[in-house]
């Protein structure tokens, strides 16, 4: 189950809907006799289908006494039904090769299943049974309430979650939006099965539901099956659409300051706005993007890039059904808070539409349109975007109407939005500060600054004038250890290019830990002829991206762009490699960001765990390094250090891979020029690192609520013959229908998050069991890990679980490679590691032929408690 904690991301994504699938199919909208709406989008690009059932029932529909019941219902539908035992719903979906989940927000709950195309009906039938056949067994309810209570505690460890819940109460007092979606401990603890059944009876009416099915399906058959499964339901009351909230100008700002075990200051500033379908909705989105939407935005350029007062800053517009919010979020050092606060207020107070150029405004509009095409890359994206527009009343032409409205937004409309939203009396803010800042900052001091810097009497300014199926792939050998992969796919007018080198952290000495990451961050921040700002503007003007990354044994440069800008973007791609600047000023900015990332990692339990995991597991070499390095050493790196690393990195083997709609000759010419630039590759061998001698690592993160446990088994690398079996074993263990989830969560309620994961490089790897639990349950959780591993060694995996794991592996693989960038990156990575470009597919194909006895043998070989490593993070 998934609660939409970061709801802002969803509503920004919502703003790009669609009227057609990527293949041009027009959606079919039908209304069943009982008033339930069914939308079908036929899209044959992939052998996949996505099923989504939206219900107009979320936390905003709850009474104060019901707070959290929508979310608890979302959990309980995964328990027993009239047809299925506990966990069987997820198991049936995963056994068919699909994935099932659900999400609760303010105005809706959505249940979804992403399936192989020939099994879409399984997804639809399971969703119907989960919701309307749920038993709400008292013992299961008691068990799941413990899980939700644990999730509530877990949320208190996440600064973003804490801040947003505090802002809800400040922004929307007296409404359903003021309460957290997950509810409170006292309300959740008190719910009974009858409470949940009553809630379903009240809100789960056919007239309030939308079924969306997208993918390689037949629309007529979908409607027929929807009628068979849902047509017997009847409405027993009339549900009136909710009324928008009244926007009354505020009298004074309201600010809340909290102190805790944080390394950074987490600050959010919000202003209430109109909600969905408001006439100014498109202008609000454009203004938010201009203000803080990306690296070209005003707030980012001013406070992150130029003044360097913050680690991160962004702005977004979130529109809900009854209201909305303009949201600004920043992360910074406590020492910078007072200066940043005053300068942010002055910036907002003096902001005028004339401060934005025509180029900036047109760039934002282009990127809003770009969001539409990016959504169409995946079948779930098609279903989610179209479903959201129809569900919220925008209609089948929601995309076209929204983009038309956005294209027509002018300076007068933008200024009107700015004047209506940026009012000091409406400002609401929450700041989380480190404990050692107590006594230096408080809410009264921040509110006083608002009155001094941004008087409410300040007048507002007037507007100023200022195709098809994927074709066969081709591999071109360029000689000297350099290769080019061509993967045509003209379904969308986009392409993605990935250049992957061998090397990365393995090129570093111990004292250079973090240098590869720093060099990758600085690489795209300047060339001999362009600075970082110019590059950011260049890319944003073309709705393109260019990024570099360093891994434990690779280094990569990737670009994604509309085909019509291929010449421009590929030219910059080559320029970055040919003439990297590594300017001192940009290195300073990259260094500042990396040091901030280290602190942020150490603010979150799992961030801390993964920062310390590899140094704990491995004794030496690049695999034993902290990816971001140690702060004191990172602070000392110079531009010459970055140049030294990158010069060596360029001499190692690489593969360039392109996927999408591209010109073959143009790509061959680019690859040949890069091969000439780099010269013949130096020999490189992927290492087999030595494992660490220490078997247990205990870490502490004060002020948190949960204990996090990792039980880790060394396994072979991807070159090993056991890799297909390990993939199958991990698939049997992981997921909501997996053995770990079923035993430790469903049966014993030991934690909210329970899973396994497999990590491998060429010659090394590990399989890890994970759980986030309450500290007093940690011992039982470790016993549960041991019991599951013991059962696997003695009994293996039952045939029914093997079938589920096989299908889940296949489905996950297909879903994971829908995006152009995923396919280009996969091919380049596999080849540079010494495999064929279809190596991953071949592993999956081999895995689905294995039996439970094969997996039993692997469990006996690898799941040895005497060889396991244990990492524990306690509060």
UniProtKB/TrEMBL annotation:
Its cofactor is Zn(2+). PROSITE patterns: INSULINASE. Residues 1-21 form the signal peptide. GO terms for biological process: proteolysis. Residues 191-368, 655-809 form the Peptidase M16 C-terminal domain. GO terms for molecular function: metal ion binding; metalloendopeptidase activity. Residues 38-182, 489-613 form the Peptidase M16 N-terminal domain. Keywords: Signal. Belongs to the peptidase M16 family. This is Insulinase family protein.
């Amino acid at each position: 189950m998934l609660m939409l904690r970061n709801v802002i991301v969803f509503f920004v994504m919502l703003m790009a809907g669609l009227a057609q699938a990527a293949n041009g199919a027009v959606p079919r909208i039908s209304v069943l006799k009982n008033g339930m709406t069914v939308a079908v989008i036929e899209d044959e690009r992939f052998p996949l289908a996505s099923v989504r059932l939206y219900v107009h029932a979320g936390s905003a529909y709850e009474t104060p006494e019901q707070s959290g019941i929508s979310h608890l219902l979302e959990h309980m539908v995964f328990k027993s039904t009239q047809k299925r035992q506990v966990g069987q719903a997820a198991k049936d979906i995963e056994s068919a090769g699909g994935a099932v989940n659900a999400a609760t927000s303010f105005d809706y709950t959505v249940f979804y299943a992403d399936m192989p195309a020939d099994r879409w009906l399984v997804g639809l039938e399971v969703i119907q049974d989960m919701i309307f056949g749920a038993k709400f067994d008292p013992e299961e309810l008691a068990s799941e309430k413990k899980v939700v209570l644990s999730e509530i505690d877990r949320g208190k460890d996440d600064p973003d979650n804490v801040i947003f819940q505090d802002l809800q109460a400040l922004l929307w007092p007296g409404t359903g939006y003021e309460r957290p979606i997950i509810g409170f401990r006292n309300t959740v603890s008190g719910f009974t099965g009858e409470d949940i059944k009553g809630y379903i009876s009240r809100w789960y009416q056919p007239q309030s539901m939308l079924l969306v099915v997208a993918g390689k399906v037949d629309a007529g058959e979908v409607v027929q099956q929807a009628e068979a499964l849902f047509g017997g339901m009847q409405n027993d009351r009339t549900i009136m659409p909710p009324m928008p909230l009244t926007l009354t100008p505020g009298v004074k700002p309201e600010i809340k300051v909290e102190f805790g075990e944080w390394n950074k200051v987490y600050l959010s500033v919000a202003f209430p706005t109109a909600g969905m379908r408001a006439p100014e909705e498109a202008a609000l989105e454009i203004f938010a993007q201009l203000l803080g939407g990306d690296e070209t935005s005003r707030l980012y350029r001013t406070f992150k890039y130029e003044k360097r007062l913050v680690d991160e800053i962004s702005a977004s517009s979130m529109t809900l059904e009854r209201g909305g919010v303009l949201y600004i979020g920043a992360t910074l050092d406590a020492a910078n808070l007072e200066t940043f606060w005053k300068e942010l207020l002055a910036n907002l107070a003096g902001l005028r539409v004339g401060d934005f150029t025509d180029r900036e405004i047109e760039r934002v509009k282009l990127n809003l349109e770009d969001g539409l095409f990016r959504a169409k890359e995946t079948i779930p994206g098609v279903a989610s975007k179209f479903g959201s527009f129809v569900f919220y009343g925008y209609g089948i032409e929601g995309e076209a109407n929204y983009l038309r409205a956005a294209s027509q937004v002018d300076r007068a409309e933008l200024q009107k939005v700015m004047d209506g939203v940026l009012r000091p009396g409406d400002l609401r803010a929450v700041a989380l500060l480190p404990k050692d800042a107590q006594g230096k900052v408080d809410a009264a001091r921040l509110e006083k600054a608002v009155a001094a810097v941004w008087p409410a009497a300040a007048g507002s300014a007037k507007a100023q004038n200022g195709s098809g199926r994927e074709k066969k792939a081709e591999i071109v050998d360029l000689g000297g250890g350099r290769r080019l992969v061509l993967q045509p796919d003209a379904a969308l007018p986009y392409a993605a290019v990935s250049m992957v080198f061998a090397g990365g952290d393995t090129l570093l000495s111990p004292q250079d830990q973090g240098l590869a990451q720093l060099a990758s961050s600085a690489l795209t921040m300047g060339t001999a002829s362009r600075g970082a700002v110019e590059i950011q503007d260049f890319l944003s003007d073309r709705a393109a991206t260019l990024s570099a990354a360093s891994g434990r044994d690779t280094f990569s440069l990737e670009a994604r762009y509309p085909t019509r800008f291929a010449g421009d973007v590929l030219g910059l791609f080559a320029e970055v490699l040919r003439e990297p600047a590594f300017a001192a000023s940009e290195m300073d900015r990259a260094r500042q960001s990396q040091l901030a990332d280290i602190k942020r990692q150490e603010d979150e339990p799992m961030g801390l765990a993964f920062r310390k995991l590899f140094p704990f597991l491995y004794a030496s070499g690049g695999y034993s390094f902290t990816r971001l390095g140690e702060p004191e050493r990172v602070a000392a790196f110079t531009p010459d250090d970055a140049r030294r690393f990158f010069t060596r990195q360029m001499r190692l083997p690489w593969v360039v891979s392109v996927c999408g709609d591209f010109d073959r000759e143009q790509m061959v010419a680019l690859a040949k020029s890069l091969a000439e630039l780099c010269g013949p590759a130096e020999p490189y061998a992927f290492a087999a690192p030595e494992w660490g001698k220490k078997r247990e690592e205990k870490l502490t993160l004060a002020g948190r609520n949960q204990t996090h446990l990792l039980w880790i088994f060394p396994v072979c690398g991807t070159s090993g013959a056991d890799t297909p079996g390990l993939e199958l074993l991990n698939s049997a263990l992981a997921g909501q229908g997996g053995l770990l989830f079923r035993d430790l969560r469903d049966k014993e309620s030991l934690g909210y998050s329970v899973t396994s994961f497999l990590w491998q490089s060429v010659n090394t790897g590990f399989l890890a069991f994970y759980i986030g639990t309450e500290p007093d349950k940690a011992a039982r959780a470790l016993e549960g890990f041991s019991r599951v591993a013991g059962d696997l060694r003695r009994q293996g995996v039952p045939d029914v679980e093997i079938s589920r794991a096989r299908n889940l592996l296949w489905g996950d693989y297909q879903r994971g490679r829908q995006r152009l960038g995923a396919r280009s990156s996969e091919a380049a990575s596999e080849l540079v590691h010494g495999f064929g470009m279809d190596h991953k597919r071949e592993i999956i194909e081999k895995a689905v032929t294995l039996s439970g006895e094969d997996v039993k043998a692997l469990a006996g070989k690898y799941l040895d408690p005497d060889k396991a490593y244990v990492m524990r993070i306690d509060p």
